[in-house]
Amino acid sequence: MFLNLVVDMASIRVRTIIAVVAGFVGILMAGHPAWAQFGPSEPDLSGSWLGLMGEDVPERAVPGPLPGDFTGLALNAAGKSLAASTSMARFTTIERQCALWPPQYLVLGPMPLKIAADTDPITGKTIAYRIGAWEDRATTVIWMDGRPHPSENAPHTKGGFETGKWQGNTLTTFTTHIKAGIIRRNGAQVSDRATLTTHYIINGDLLTILMFIDDPVYLSEPQAFSRDFRLINNANALSATGPPCIPSFEGAASDAVAHYLPGTNPMVGELKKQHGIPLEAAAGGAETMYPEYRKKLKDKYVRPEKCLSDCGPGFGPPPGVGPPGMGPPGAPPGGARGGPPGAPPGGKPPR
User: Fold this and answer.
1) Could you tell me the pTM of the whole model?
2) What pLDDT was estimated at residue 40?
């Protein structure tokens, strides 16, 4: 009987401890509602992502876009004027060498991405994602904790202020407070009133970044850009940040800023000279973004007598001038870009 009494007292003590612990946990969960939600976990954006490029190599890497080629950009009249009067040589001055790449260069340039997550040590929730800096592109911070955007009068930074929220496998973000910057490496740019709506879409080991830029100053409608990345299995494949931007003397005068007065840019006609594209199309504008615009140019386009660039198996000069083997596999001479399949070097069709 004494043994039964001891067992009963022990059971009461155990039940009391369980009740106290359960009550304590309940209080903690009341203070942290996220602890009480055990739904499906969110996707994870962190990791090392390598950019995928194909025919867009000349645009994103080398040799870069042609001077005066603003096709496919939704520039308004002010945007066209600014693009045509801008000389990229201005970025050779020491004070501007590290001021070229804005947040949208994530999808415009050739760099890979190293993304890390900042987590709450108590809840384990992601507070922010950090995309490492690369040369003169600043670190991108995507705030995930629901904080509001700063006042319109707050300072603008190279990285801007970006907030995000997951919608299925897509992280949709909104960026404000960015500095004015380029949208093509030949002078086309947006103002510091521009905003970015970005969709980070994860599909297995693939990441597609789809970005829309709105700018009431230099764009007549949203400008879309996209780029694909593939996850690298080796988490240490990329460092947290890329190489730093180190200004140095590049021969530019310190008391002058390179520019063109209205109507004096000698490179504006480069696209017409090399590819026969009419000047009105090369100047850009929203209508040049859509396939229907080809119908408008049908009766105005005059094919050049001789292909001057992107003509053969390599990107750039005609075959025999530049290094071979950079074109699409199996592309016949003259058929890679500047001429029809089977055309001889120089892009001229067979006669």
Assistant:
1) 0.75
2) 58
